[in-house]
């Protein structure tokens, strides 16, 4: 296929020097950074240790920790320290010109992955806009090691969907939020409008039997909606856990949500209150177990911010302060926060009574209890009653980047599903340890493969041979972190400003999913040859077979178009030193993308001879408004 007829030298000294520094840094890190490998079942526990000022405590040793499982001491088989400072990259890229991207990673191997989940299913529409504003504020203000964090963004409605795969490029994250920051009503969330039962109750001469019937019906419908929300949410978290289980290391799941109750309490106002009661603890157990086994620590953030009662009453504070059954977590609405960017919603003028207050307290406690329980079960932290959502994101990423990994082999190999309690302690006083508090002893071999395997299957079909190149197939999974064994720049720009009805030559569209009109884009690869590790050939030259793959994904993670072309590279010995210092350019033929819809490009460079691969993912939205490509721009430097 006529992907590239010539291999040209590209005079990009900035790229060559930075990429070489990155190669050396990665080689050094790979020699120094310990890696947990095992052929027997291990229990892996990530522990964050902070002092009384909430600062991470570093340079601890394995001997400083005592680990118990069901009160029995455990011998550590592996121990690692992870800190944001050690994860800082040895070299930094200069700012890139519009249309240029790179898989050069500013995070080191072993750095945690951060997943932001924007939950529309459980969040009132008026709070969704504030979530986007606060998350964008974090992206724009992140500095230091926080700016190097690998972040992916998912959304949740009645299903889980990917908004942006893992990236450290803040331009891409901001473009995603600008493109998809339109709040949307949850199909299953109570709108807060007055119920039909209240309307009937206020009307004259309405039989009490009819009011009770309508009240019971509405109560049961609300309970059903709550149960559906909870189950949709847990199904999505299960799906996310299975997907993340295929990625190594720790993951921090930052979950913006209006929260949801796992236990739905009976409503004493209803004639048959027991009919709305539900307990989903079994499903919740499965979810937290999947997350823990995938090394996912959950950081729930209440998207509603500072909670206040939906009524106006001077009696409220008195009631909450005297309620004998309320602990500090139950009286959430009376707590104060130092973040005041968002004013709490003003309570209505509706007069309060004890029933109203009791319901508000019970519902708020139930929802917050689920968030606290989720965080505690997975070794994360819940952020409740704070309007500083941007600060909460920063704290979650920072906390989740400074931790110790402890691993041990459990003495008992009886996989009977029982809960095994984990206790981690230290002799030093005044330290706070956060970790998952246990696990369910389910058979490790019974875990099903993650349900996102369809993406991997798709990546191995059509343009890609299915069996021989698993590394390339994995690198092309929609939304996955981009591997950096082969370092490259990519330049993506429209080939023209006009739409077309035909697909560009050399493209492999999926006919059922590719609908005209199309727009063509030019893709240029600028590869650092040292990372290819080309092999010696005849006459002292260096050569090998290099493959360039571009997949077009729709927002559902389905491949709609692909270009896959191999190039035989042969560089004479006399030119090899020059190529190493200056890099190589490979020019791509046009790629067709449907004009209508949201699409992402997944790009990869694959060395067939040794299986080395590099990949990155780019939303089409970030390049669609650029001027059309021309020959001058193709040879210009990536850096500003």
Architecture overview:
With 640 residues, this protein is an alpha+beta fold. Helix content is 28%, strand content 25%. It has helices spanning 13-32, 125-141, 170-179, 196-202, 208-245, 281-293, 315-322, 354-378, 389-399, 453-459, 470-475, 529-532, 573-582, 631-634, and strands at residues 8-9, 43-50, 65-69, 72-73, 76-82, 100-102, 113-119, 150-156, 160-167, 251-257, 263-264, 278-279, 296-302, 403-408, 419-426, 432-434, 438-440, 488-494, 518-527, 535-536, 542-554, 559-571, 584-587, 591-594, 599-607, 612-619. Strands 1, 6, 18, 19, 23 and 24 form a six-stranded antiparallel sheet that branches. A five-stranded mixed sheet has the order 9-8-7-10-13, sandwiched between helices. The radius of gyration is 27 Å and the shape is globular.
**What class do helices, strands and sheet pairing give?**
alpha+beta
Distance separating the two termini: 33 Å
**CATH architecture heading of the largest domain:** 3-Layer(aba) Sandwich
- Low-confidence runs (pLDDT<50, min 5 residues)? 1-39, 264-278, 313-340, 447-467, 631-636
Largest sheet: 6 strands, antiparallel
Taking Cα atoms only, what radius of gyration do you get, to the nearest Å? 27 Å
Based on Cα principal axes, name the global outline.
globular
Q: Helicity level, as a percent range?
A: 25-40%
CATH class of the largest domain: Alpha Beta
What integer is the average pLDDT?
Answer: 76
State the fourth-level CATH superfamily of the largest domain: von Willebrand factor, type A domain
What's the total helix number?
Answer: 14
- Range of strand content: 15-25%
The CATH topology of the largest domain corresponds to Rossmann fold
Work out the count of structural domains: 3
The total beta strand count reads 26
């Amino acid at each position: 296929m006529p992907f590239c007829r010539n291999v040209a030298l590209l005079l990009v000294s900035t790229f060559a020097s930075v990429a070489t520094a990155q190669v050396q840094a990665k080689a050094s890190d790979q020699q120094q950074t310990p890696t947990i490998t095992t052929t027997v079942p291990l229990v892996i526990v990530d522990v964050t240790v902070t002092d009384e000022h909430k600062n991470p405590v570093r340079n601890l040793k394995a001997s400083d920790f005592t680990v118990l499982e069901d009160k029995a001491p455990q011998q550590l088989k592996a121990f690692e320290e992870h800190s944001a400072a050690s994860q800082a990259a040895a070299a930094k890229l200069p700012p890139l010109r519009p249309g240029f991207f790179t898989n050069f990673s500013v995070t080191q191997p072993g750095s945690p992955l951060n997943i932001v989940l924007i939950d529309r299913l459980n969040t009132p529409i008026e709070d969704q806009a504030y979530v986007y504003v606060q998350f964008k504020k974090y992206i724009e203000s992140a500095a230091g090691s926080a700016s190097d964090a690998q972040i992916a963004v998912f959304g949740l409605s009645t299903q889980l969907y990917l908004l942006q795969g893992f990236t450290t490029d803040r331009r891409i994250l901001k473009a995603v939020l600008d493109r998809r920051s339109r709040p949307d009503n949850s199909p299953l969330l109570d709108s807060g409008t007055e119920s039909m039962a209240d309307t009937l109750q206020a009307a004259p001469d309405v039989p009490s039997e009819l009011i009770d019937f309508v009240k019971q019906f509405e109560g049961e419908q609300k309970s059903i909606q709550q149960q559906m929300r909870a189950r949709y949410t847990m199904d999505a978290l299960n799906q996310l856990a299975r997907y993340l289980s295929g990625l190594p290391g720790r993951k921090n799941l930052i979950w913006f949500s209006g929260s949801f109750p796992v236990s739905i309490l009976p409503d004493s106002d209803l004639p048959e209150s027991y009919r709305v009661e539900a307990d989903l603890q079994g499903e919740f157990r499965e979810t937290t177990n999947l997350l823990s086994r995938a090394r996912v620590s959950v950081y729930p953030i209440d998207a509603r911010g500072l909670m206040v009662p939906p009524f106006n009453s001077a009696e409220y504070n008195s009631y909450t302060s005297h309620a004998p059954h309320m602990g500090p977590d139950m009286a959430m609405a009376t707590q104060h926060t130092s973040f005041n960017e968002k004013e709490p919603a003003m309570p209505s003028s509706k007069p309060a009574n004890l029933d109203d207050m009791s319901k508000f307290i019970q519902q708020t406690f139930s929802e917050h209890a689920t968030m606290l329980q989720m965080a505690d079960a997975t070794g994360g932290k819940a952020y409740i009653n704070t309007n500083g959502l941007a600060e909460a994101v920063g704290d979650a990423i920072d906390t989740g980047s400074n931790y110790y990994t402890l691993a041990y082999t459990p003495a008992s190999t009886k996989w009977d599903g029982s809960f095994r309690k984990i206790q981690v302690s230290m002799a030093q006083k005044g330290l706070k340890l956060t970790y998952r508090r246990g696990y369910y002893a389910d058979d490790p071999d019974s875990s099903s493969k993650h349900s996102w395997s369809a993406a991997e299957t798709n990546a191995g079909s059509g343009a890609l041979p299915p069996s021989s190149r698993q590394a390339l197939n994995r690198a092309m999974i929609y939304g996955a972190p981009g591997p950096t064994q082969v370092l490259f720049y990519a330049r993506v720009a429209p080939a023209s400003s006009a739409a077309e009805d035909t697909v560009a030559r050399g493209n492999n569209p999926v006919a059922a999913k590719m609908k005209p009109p199309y727009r063509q884009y030019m893709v240029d690869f600028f590869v650092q040859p040292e990372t290819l590790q080309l092999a010696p050939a005849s006459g002292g030259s260096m050569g090998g077979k290099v493959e360039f793959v571009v997949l077009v994904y729709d927002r559902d993670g389905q491949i709609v178009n692909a270009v896959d072309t191999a190039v035989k590279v042969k560089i004479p010995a006399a030119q090899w030193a020059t190529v190493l210092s200056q890099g190589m350019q490979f020019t791509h033929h046009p790629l067709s993308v449907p004009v209508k819809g949201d699409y992402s490009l997944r790009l990869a460079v694959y060395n067939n001879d040794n299986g080395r691969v590099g990949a990155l993912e780019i939303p089409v939205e970030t390049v669609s408004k650029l001027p059309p490509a021309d020959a001058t721009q193709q040879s210009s430097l990536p850096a500003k």
